[in-house]
Design a protein that fits this description.
The complex is a heterodimer of chains A (874) and B (182). Chain A has 874 residues and is α/β, with parallel strands linked by helices. Chain A is built from 29 helices and 23 strands. In chain B, strands 1, 2, 3, 4, 5 and 6 form a six-stranded mixed beta sheet that branches. Chain B is 40% helix and 19% strand. Chain B has one domain: 3-Layer(aba) Sandwich (Mannitol-specific EII, Chain A), CATH 3.40.930.10. Classes of the chains: A alpha/beta (874), B alpha/beta (182).
């Protein structure tokens, strides 16, 4: 496994301290057996830093500065600087620079504040999952947060403790560790305070080493802390694992869209500059005009809208106890069409229960439960999950009539263990263990209360029950016993012979209560679930059966390893269960699905899932996961319920719906406007809108969009995965843009032929210079208003396939901002205070307002008819 | 061993003239299918072969018990016996030819009875000198006598080996103190 390789430097240091005599380790970390004082611990905490492997969050200034790197913001800043230097008129220079600066401010600061607010909410939730550990400070056992452990501390460990740092055991009693988070090996290992004699390859092999990321399965012990935080093996591993993920589907989609808009902006700006310079003969004016056209085409509010929508989603999910560690993962949650999950601890409870206790032919047997209980009760070695499951099933009254005589402990060669019990004058050896190992020492079997001779053919028959239980996904062990007379007091492994096979115990890790409902919810939403697990296919199939997940194809890791790329891709796509996978294979499966055009989510909780969590478009972990898995995930579920996943998907889709609204508007409406500008630059001997008015227009329009994150989304819009569809956006732009432009040209015609000549006393050619100025101001005013009205109201058309205002209503926030934007634009043309803008509302006359009303209704109707099929197919 | 006794009493003991395992299965399978209580077309031979594929059914040197398990039928166990003087090449793990085939048709609900029958038969064979007594027979009548000896042994003293004496413990009772009465 790639993740189990230690880094070159750090493990050497820890391994060296595990290798030598105990006193040398104490000297090396300047520790004493009575533990550190609080003052010394504080000093060391200052020196070595917190005992955490988490990546540190960048400072507020760095986070803010990162926002200025967005291509759209860079573009706006360039335009801002150019307009400052090239604008001659001081008032316009200040006004235009302020307006563009205001847009940068809106875009950068609003998105920053939105993100930092949700980051605070997330940090609050993350603080709820902090762990603590017992250490000796000032000579007494004290509980301290794990991130305050320092080298030289003496930690006190017991069953269930997390090993908080890389440590050396100095005291131990029946001390067994699970290193599965580090090595993937599920069997516990015993640790004792012996010096390491041979040269070990790694600290994991040292019999006295307990490394961060392990946990205590049984026994008690004390350990000297050798290294903390990123100096530990786990920290070195984690540092590599929390490196930046690949670009997700959302990032790629946003990038594609932004570059499409920038390319379009460059073409349109160049053409506008050329036509305008040629038509008016004023190169500088044409240049400034082209710059403002560039602004008009820039979806400069995109970062703010993205941040606003995503932050709102993050806060909604935070209320559901879902920590979104990367905001853009919310959209990926909505776009996800394949959901892969590890099984244990995610779909299942990670809590083994004794499901069945049966005799050799599969009938429920109380004798089997009773004997298993006595074995588990009297054994003093490692009490594993299976023992706990047995003990939790019943509680027998043994004190009055039973006495433990001896115990033959478990070892990995025999794979069984026995206890000998004295019960009212009889000695009975009760043995449990792996089925094959138990059968190999049985010469009889029991049915009801009769004992029969075991012959090879009958072994086959009684093994059938074991096979049947295994095939149903149970983990099965066998139980046997033998009577002894009372002359014996000491028993050895050799006494485990001539046993009577009594029956089988079948264990299972049951699915979470909410797993079935959550998976059904995913199916309803068009998300296909797959199991990617290191466990065997039979157990996985049982989990699927229990949670009602249909299984049409099962593939194992060994089969995948033998496939060529084409077969691998097909298997990854078709299989519902991919079992016995290595961590690298989980990652390969996810990459294969992504390469086939799917947006893939992965939910896992172990270090073995980290590669897959990082490869997925959205990595999801649970609160009980190892830290590095949580660190690598995009989302962490703090609640046991998986239903929040479904809520998360709905939220993600709502958010993307709202983002899409802005993008559709930005793409189609801006395109239409600039198409009109380009035409007007060719048709008219003046610019159809002054640069300052284009900026004001853009500013008002941007303001109206700030409520988009709060808009409501129709249920039918979140019924299936929503992914970036650049060609769909382009189609929207190419159809809706010209429609918008058509009404612009109608306005031009109205202004050129009707309104302006009527108000100015004649056509353009018949007017003198003053008349031309009056003509241009009125022309600008007419188009300014029409442009704002149509551009702003179109959000009500493209927000849903239903009839705008009647079939589907926008949220009150969006309705308010659009009405406010339109009202403000109209007021601006009448306001006596904004003289510098060159607007003349009173001069338009009632004909204009009637025509505007008619054109608005016609535009909304036509736009709806064109947008509707595209929205339905989106 | 009562099922073997039933077979002997019902005349379901035959000499196998062929020496191949397949032919022996075909023959005994057809005999079982001819029993009126066994449903028609129940695929006895196929079921016997399927069981054999999952593990050889030789019980002790020279003796095998091929069997067909059926699910979903409530009925008794039936058995048919084939004797081969020359022995059948059975691919037994001990490498010996099989001289006696006791074929069973077992509804799933009769698994306990079958296991007891098997254990009884195995114990009788081992306790009475092994398969040699059958191998040395010259006629089917002699075989029948030897088999009846086994049945007698098993019914009188053979199976079960012994009665189990299990530890009996009760669950801890939660003792409730009655609430004080006012």
């Amino acid at each position: 496994m790639p993740e189990s390789k230690p880094s070159k430097d750090t493990p050497d240091k820890v391994t060296a301290l595990l290798h030598g005599p105990e006193e040398a380790a104490f000297t090396a970390v300047e520790a004493i057996r009575e533990g550190l004082s609080s003052e010394e611990a504080a000093r060391r905490l200052e020196k070595f830093g917190p005992n955490s492997v988490s990546a540190r969050r960048a400072s507020a200034i760095v986070e803010l500065l990162r926002k200025f790197k967005e291509p759209l913001v860079v573009q706006l800043m360039v335009i801002c600087v150019l307009s400052y230097f090239f604008e001659d008129e001081p008032t316009k220079k200040i006004l235009s620079t302020s307006l563009v600066g205001g847009m940068v401010f809106l875009s950068v600061f609003l998105s920053y504040f939105q993100e930092s607010r949700s980051a605070k909410a997330i940090a609050k939730l993350q603080a709820m999952v902090k762990s603590s550990c017992l250490v000796i400070r000032d000579g007494i056992e004290t509980s301290v947060p794990i991130d305050e452990i320092v080298p030289g501390d003496i930690v006190v460990l017991a069953a269930g403790s997390i090993i908080p740092a890389d440590c050396r055991i100095i005291q131990a009693k029946d001390f067994f560790l699970s290193q599965s988070a580090l090595t993937g090996e599920s069997m516990p290992v015993e640790r004792m305070p012996l010096p390491t004699l041979a040269n070990p390859h790694s600290a994991q092999e040292c019999p006295n080493g307990c490394l961060m990321g392990s946990n205590v399965q049984s026994g008690t012990g004390r350990a000297l802390v050798l290294a903390t935080g990123r100096e530990t093996q786990f920290g070195a591993m984690s540092a590599r694992m929390v490196e930046r993920k690949d670009a997700t589907a959302f990032e790629l989609g946003t990038r594609d869209f932004v570059w499409m808009m920038i390319r379009m902006m460059l073409i349109m700006t160049t053409l506008t500059f050329g036509f305008s310079a040629w038509r008016t003969g004023k190169v500088l004016d044409a240049f400034l005009f082209a710059l403002t056209v560039a602004i008009g085409l820039t979806p400069e509010m995109l970062p703010m809208i993205l941040a606003g929508c995503l932050s709102k989603g993050a806060k909604s999910l935070a209320r559901l106890k879902v920590v979104m560690k990367r905001l853009d993962a919310i959209q990926n949650l909505g776009a996800m069409d394949i959901f892969c999950t590890d099984k244990t601890g995610t779909l299942t409870q990670d809590h083994i229960v004794l499901q069945r206790h049966v005799d050799v032919i599969g009938r429920d047997s109380e004798d089997v439960l009773r004997y298993a209980w006595m074995n588990a009760h009297y054994q003093t070695g490692l009490r594993n999950l299976l023992d706990r499951a047995i003990l939790s099933r019943t509680d027998l009254d043994v004190e009055r009539s039973c006495r433990k005589v001896d115990e033959i402990p478990f070892d990995f060669q025999r794979r069984r263990m026995s206890v000998v019990v004295d019960h009212e004058g009889d000695y009975q050896l009760i043995c449990k263990g792996a089925v094959e190992e138990i059968l190999s020492v049985c010469d009889r079997y029991q049915i009801d209360d009769e004992l029969h001779t075991m012959i090879p053919m009958i072994k086959d028959e009684v093994l059938e029950e074991y096979r049947s239980l295994s095939a149903q996904g149970f983990r099965v062990i066998a139980l046997a016993y033998r009577d002894f007379d009372r002359s014996r007091e000491v028993f050895t492994a050799a006494d485990e012979s001539g046993l009577v096979l009594l029956g089988y115990l079948a264990f299972f890790d049951p699915p979470k209560e909410t797993a079935a409902t959550a998976l059904a919810g995913l199916r309803e939403r068009g998300v296909r679930a797959k199991i990617l697990t290191g466990d065997n296919e039979l157990v996985s199939r049982k989990v699927c059966d229990d949670v009602g997940m249909p299984v049409s194809r099962v593939v194992t890791g060994a089969q995948l390893a033998a496939m060529d790329k084409e077969a691998f891709d097909l298997a990854a796509l078709e299989a519902d269960i991919l079992a016995r996978l290595t961590p690298a294979q989980k990652e390969q499966v996810i990459r294969s699905l992504k390469a086939q055009g799917h947006t893939v989510g992965f939910m896992g909780d172990g270090i073995n899932d980290v590669l897959a969590l990082k490869a997925a478009d959205v990595g999801i972990s649970v609160d009980t996961a190892v830290d590095v898995a949580k660190e690598s995930a995009d989302a962490v579920l703090l609640e046991k319920s998986l239903l929040v996943l479904v809520d998360g998907i709905d939220e993600g889709r709502r958010i993307f719906c709202n983002i899409e609204k802005y993008i559709r508007m930005g793409a189609s409406s801006n395109f239409g406007n600039m198409f009109s500008v380009l035409g007007a630059a060719l048709l008219f001997p003046f610019q159809p809108l002054s640069p300052i008015l284009i900026l004001v227009n853009n500013f008002i329009y941007d303001f109206s969009q700030t409520a988009i994150p709060f808009d409501r989304v129709e249920d039918d819009q979140i019924a299936k995965p929503r992914q970036w569809n650049i060609s769909g956006i382009r189609s929207f732009m190419l159809w809706l843009g010209p429609v918008s432009s058509l009404f612009d040209y109608l306005t031009f015609a109205l202004m050129w032929f009707v309104i302006c000549p009527a108000a100015c006393g004649g056509s353009w050619s018949s007017l003198d210079a003053d008349g031309h100025i009056k003509f241009v101001i009125l022309f600008h005013t007419g188009w300014f208003i029409e442009s704002i009205v149509t551009q702003t109201l179109v959000v009500h058309v493209i927000r849903s396939a239903k009839v705008p205002f009647f079939g589907a209503r926008a949220s009150w926030q969006l309705s308010l901002t659009t009405i406010a934007a339109v009202s403000f634009a109209c007021w601006l043309t009448f306001s006596p205070w904004i003289k510098g803008l060159g607007l003349n509302g009173p001069g338009l006359g009632s004909t204009y307002w009637l025509a505007l009303a008619a054109m608005t209704v016609a535009y909304v109707t036509l736009a709806h008819l064109i947008a509707r099929p595209r929205l339905q197919s989106a | 061993m009562r099922k073997l006794l039933d077979a002997l009493q019902s005349g379901r003991l035959f000499e196998l003239t062929e020496t191949s395992k397949d032919e022996a299965f075909d023959f005994l399978g057809r005999v079982l299918e001819a029993i009126p209580e066994i449903p028609d077309n129940s695929g006895v031979v196929e079921a016997m072969r399927a069981r054999e594929q999952s593990g050889n059914t030789s019980v002790s040197p020279g003796l095998a018990c091929p069997h067909a398990r059926v699910e979903g039928i409530t009925a008794d166990i039936y058995c048919a016996v084939g004797w081969s003087k020359d022995g059948i090449d059975y691919d037994a793990p001990d490498g010996q030819r099989v001289h006696l085939l006791v074929a069973y048709w077992i509804p799933d609900c009769q698994r306990v009875a079958f296991l007891k029958e098997m254990s009884g038969l195995a114990k009788a064979v081992l306790s009475t000198g092994g398969i040699g007594v059958i191998r040395d027979c010259d006629t089917l009548g002699e075989v029948r006598h030897r088999l009846l000896d086994w049945v007698t042994f098993a019914l009188n003293e053979g199976s079960p080996d012994v009665r189990a004496r299990m530890l009996k413990l009760s669950e801890k009772s939660t003792e409730h103190t009655p609430p004080p009465q006012n």
